[in-house]
Each structure stands twice: as C-alpha cells, then as structure tokens.
Amino acid sequence: xxxxxxxxxxxxxxxxxxxxxxxxxxxxxxxxxxxxxxxxxxxxxxxxxxxxxxxxxxxxxxxxxxxxxxxxxxxxxxxxxxxxxxxxxxxxxxxxxxxxxxxxxxxxxxxxxxxxxxxxxxxxxxxxxxxxxxxxxxxxxxxxxxxxxxxxxxxxxxxxxxxxxxxxxxxxxxxxxxxxxxxxxxxxxxxxxxxxxxx
Length: 199
Description:
- It is a single chain.
- By secondary structure, the protein is an alpha+beta fold.
- It has a single domain, classed as Methylpurine-DNA glycosylase (MPG) (3-methyladenine DNA Glycosylase, Chain A, Roll), CATH 3.10.300.10.
- 15% of the residues lie in helices and 27% in strands.
- The protein is built from four helices and eight strands, in the order ααβββββααβββ.
- The protein has helices at 3-9, 13-19, 104-110, 123-130, and strands at 24-27, 30-41, 68-73, 77-84, 91-102, 146-149, 158-161, 175-178.
- Strands 1, 2, 3, 4, 5, 6, 7 and 8 form an eight-stranded antiparallel sheet that branches.
- It is globular.
C-alpha cells in the first residue's frame, strides 16, 4: 500500500469514501475498479454495525485503518468494507460495486449467469466475483493476497445519495458513485415490514 493511500485511509470516513472511487481492489487474479461506495461512521451513525459499541463481529472496525471488514448477511451474501479513520473510531467504507478490470474469465466462472456489467454490480456480487468471504475478514490490504491501490487518475465526477436498504439514518447522503457508470448498483430503499394483526 502506498504512503498516499495510507494517509488517505487515516482520514474521516466522509472524506475517504468518495476518494476510493476508481481505486482498485484485487484478490489474486481478479481486480475490480471501485465505482460505488457507502460511508459508515461508527458510533455517530445508526446505520453502522458499530453504532452500539464493539462486538465480536465488528471488532475489526475498531482497529487500524487499511484492513478489511467482511460480514455475512441474509444467510447467503458476503459484503466487504475498508476500515478507515483513526484507530478506535470504528469507521468503514462499504465497497458496493465495481468494474472487473483484470481476471474477467475467472470472475465470469464465479458468476456464470451474469453479464459482464453485472459481475460486481452490488456488494454481494462484488464479493462473489473476487471470491471474498469470512476467511478474508481482518485481511491487511497493505500486503498479502488482498490489496487496495489508488488509481492515480484525477478524482472522477461523482454523485451522492441515500445508502441502500437502511432503516437507521436512511436519509443521509453517504452513498457515493461515479456518475453515469453502468456498473453502479440500483438504489433500493429499505422495506418497511409490518406485522399482520392476529385474529
């Protein structure tokens, strides 16, 4: 990991998140250019897994920046986050979507029914394309099989809006995406579930 990237990851999550657009997340032969992210601000954010304090699940979020936080959701999907901010702040950036720029055939073999545009379009699909699962939780992105690199290109034109599928702090415009990029995922608000009356 470059000194520039390390310095960036040390910063506040709302500064870091949009600057990770166009960064390259790689695992083995497959690399993804990041086109969409969401910011999560720990104890200041009801949408964050760390809002209510440390648990066994989220403890990596309290560690030093530059590590990966992977969680399993809905009993079927993995999602990955880059831990950012000063140690102890529990901030993280969810990697929501991207474009496969290396290892396309390998990614296709992992998601054989998807069009190329959709291979990493959404956080679960991205993890599937990169073969990221719970065994990658706590991975150090500064070295090893999983790496994160800045593109070196000028900052892209990006848009902001509400995060996807959240009930807590759903209105905060903390989702950032490269405007007009076809690999950005579709926005879906949280579904409000109500219990049916008995009798």
